[in-house]
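Task card 7
Instruction: Convert sequence to structure tokens.
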Amino acid sequence: MASVTVYNMDGKETGKIDLSDEVFGVEVNEHLVHLAVLQQLANNRQGTQKAKTRSEVSGGGRKPWRQKGTGHARQGSTRSPQWTGGGVVFAPVPRDYSFKMNKKEKRAALKSALSSCVKEEKLIVLEDLKFDEIKTKKFAQVLKNLKLDKALVILNENDKNTVLSARNIPNVKTAQTNAINVFDVLKYNTVVVTKDAVKTIEEVYA
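Output:
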């Protein structure tokens, strides 16, 4: 069972917390982690690219010159792919790139991502993270106290003051425990989790 230091908003140590091996101490499955990232990126694609084939471009109904006797190569249409203004060969069309993963695979991938954060000492646990008012300056000061620059902050509940205070800080993202994903966990240099959020994650994913 891994033990991690708990910090307060001033960046000072307040104690230790034991993390469940079922969530934060599993063997990292790189294949599932890769698959989960691939799925999120694929599902985010719009798939709206489009180019016209030779059957869709305008013109080209008439044979440009007779078949024989001109000295030119034979041509059937001015909208063939080799002509300027012609159609595109195997043109891209709107399509759905998304694919599905099993629930067990998704859970295992997230556990692997969280476990790798613990092993690489990229996980920081906070005693609490609350603000009396919406103030970006105060949130930035907390990051400075913890010596963080690019961080994913996981909250147990949607605290409006905290979320809006962090919104305008570049390279910082807030997420609730029910919305964390493998891509974000791997993308940011540090994952900051409140003590309450740790308990919720362990209850949900254990």
